[in-house]
FkbM family methyltransferase
Amino acid sequence: MIGIGAAATAARRHARWFVRDLFPNRPVVREVQGVRMVLPWSHRLPDYAPDGSPYGQNLVRLAALLAESAPPLTVLDVGANVGDSALQILHAADGQVLCVEADKAYLDFLRRNVGDDPRITVVEGLLVVDDDASAGSTAVRTGGTTRFVEGGGSDAMPTVSAAALRARYPSYDDLRLVKSDTDGYDVDLVPAIAEAWSDRRPVLFLEYDPHLTRLAGSDPLGLWPRLTALGYHHVAVWDNGGEPLGQTTTAQIADQAKALDALRPRRRKRVYWDVAVVHADDAAGRQAIEALVPEALPV
């Protein structure tokens, strides 16, 4: 049962969100976990990531550890949004980031935030599995995140496949870390990226949300055998607040992930995992996730 104090806090938060959502794209300057950036007023990031919060820091810490073993770090950020992940990674590690974003509303803020930083390259387009994918899509925005549904619109963007992306940006050929947050499309996109850079075996960091994956028309459990076939084995799991839950393998996680479906009916908010997936031959990658998530994921 939710206590009276918690309920009151939640009510005040939602009241603030209601007001901010009336003027969603009003620019505001915020410092989030040590990084100053321009955000749309409706963006939830400052609410989810106050000072001291672990939210989003799993990715940043993972990037820093990978950069220690082989600097500079080369990162692909799919669903770059306003550039918050790229900015925080480069605040913590020496490297470069290829940001892919297809939402025109967030692209404006992404451009403001990265400016002329030579370490960041922005790709304005929608990443797709292959070059035959349909270009018709419409952005659906909610509280600072975007998913895309079929159907053309004024905000439809050009598409680019993972293989074409690698060919167009050879300076990112030595890819070490992939971050994907595409509200349900990660299950299809991440294996395509891993295949396009299969000779580099990058660490894969993604948002694993079975509910949004099904809304996108895919089977969330289909991710794991595809990554296993590409040689990926080790998996670190965090909850959606950035707290470590444990380590497992691509062979075991399908059964363990059923817990997410069991949790969702009891909660009104989104329930998902952050996961980092490491290739079986990537010793440095495995060492990094073991440092961050030392315990085994409960069965």
